[in-house]
Amino acid sequence: MISLIISFIFFIFSTFLNEFMSVYYIKEEVYIFNLYFYKKGGRNQMLLDFDNAVNIFTDCSTWRDESDKTLASCGYCVVVDNEIVEHNNIIVDDSNNAQGELFAILMGVIAANRFKDRGSRINLFSDSKTSIRSLTHNVFNWYDNSLKRGENDFTNIKGDRIKYQELYLNIVDEIVSTGLKINFYHVRSHNRYHQESVHMARTYFNKVNKTNTSDDIVRDIIYYNNFVDKMTRHRLHDVCHEDSFDRENYRQYHYPVTRQPSRNQIENYRSLVC
Predict the structure, then answer these.
(1) So where are the chain's domains?
(2) What pLDDT digit, counting tens, does each position of 109-139 carry?
(3) What secondary structure letter does DSSP report for 248?
(4) Which of 25, 103, 205, 217 is the most exposed, having the fewest neighbouring CB atoms within 10 Å of its CB?
(5) Are strands 70-80 and 83-93 parallel, antiparallel or unpaired?
């Protein structure tokens, strides 16, 4: 009797599995739980869902004066249904490019929470490879290093404190505290629109991000990335050439989160960030 029950359960499961595969496994494309994969060379690569997503583009431009002090123009734009629905720019004093890129990403993540109900997913694009790599990979190693050494700060394998970690901490906190599921992508900067450049940008984008997308989508990515790049550069130019320019108007930003996350928080972050 027990063997008959087991056989019946196995039959039902096999039937369901065949139906599932017949519906979702189409022309080497696999849809699983609202994720979109492309099977290539025996490995699955996630296809970039751009048209149905809320897409955030961030960038930073910097300027250095005669006294070697820097000023950073940090900005983002939000794209929904292939239209810019919001863009913003903040000038931060005494901030280099690395800091500015992270600050722009923080701005973009905060903006993403305001628009997360407008699309099937959230994509954030930055031309800062270091920032994207750190937010998707390095931050977990930094956390483990700090635990091994009993430190309260993110540290590298040598025990050195990670630079600009107040920005990393606040980005992680913004994502975890709001449960924001977000995909980070690195895009090469200053691409042109002619076909050869688009094709090269697509090849690079797919390789670096382990994804697959079309020339048309990459052309859109280039357009919006160039838009936010020009926005930050033009704002910086205007500010630096103001007759009444005063650095006191652009002081450093104070970050609310100063402590590293708990183990549960870092694991939640891992599950939310692709």
Answers:
(1) 2-47, 54-272
(2) 999 999 999 999 999 999 999 999 999 999 9
(3) G
(4) 25
(5) antiparallel
